[in-house]
Amino acid sequence: MIPINNRNVLKQLSFRLIVFSLFVILVSAACGKDSGGSGGGSTPTPPPPPPVVAEENIVFTYDIDPGANIYAALGATQEVKITVTSKMPTAGVTTDIVVKRDSDGATVSSSSLTAATTSPITGTISNLATNVVCTATITLKSASTATNTSTKTFKIARK
């Protein structure tokens, strides 16, 4: 039988204890680093969001100029050219042209033009009756920002 020496056992236990302690210290130090893992480190600050670029408000003109009077159309249809004078929204604008009789508010003509990204935009007013005064309403809406709209009205009647 081999005699057990208490000193050898203590040396082995001490050595194992030191190795285990070093292992625990190294693992703890590794978990404390900002490595993005699930360790005990702090979470990194996310980058700030990119700034939101607001669209310029829509501003437009049209080629029909009745002044303070009623525009006199020469036929049952009238072409209108709409020019966007502000910066055009990147997704373009949709155009609605609605014409109603002043006498009873009935709709005479209505058209919606798909999103246009270039200017001028050509629309057509139709079904104009002789000597019937109407109010034409032109509305431009941004195709990407629902709150960016602009509306203008004018009076029109067929001669």
What CATH architecture of the largest domain do you see? Sandwich
The string of secondary-structure elements, in order, is: HEEEEEEEE
**What is the 3D form?**
rod-shaped
Number of helices: 1
Please state roughly what percent of the residues sit in beta strands, choosing from under 5%, 5-15%, 15-25%, 25-35%, 35-45% or over 45%. Answer: 35-45%
Distance between the termini: 130 Å
Give the domain tally. Answer: 2
Note poorly predicted spans: none
- Radius of gyration over all CA atoms, rounded: 39 Å
Report the CATH C-level class of the largest domain: Mainly Beta
Secondary structural class: alpha+beta
In short:
The protein is an alpha+beta fold and 159 residues long. It has one helix at residues 6-31; strands at residues 60-62, 71-73, 78-84, 93-101, 107-116, 121-125, 134-142, 149-158.
Keywords:
159 residues, Immunoglobulin-like, 2 domains, five-stranded mixed β-sheet, three-stranded antiparallel β-sheet, rod-shaped
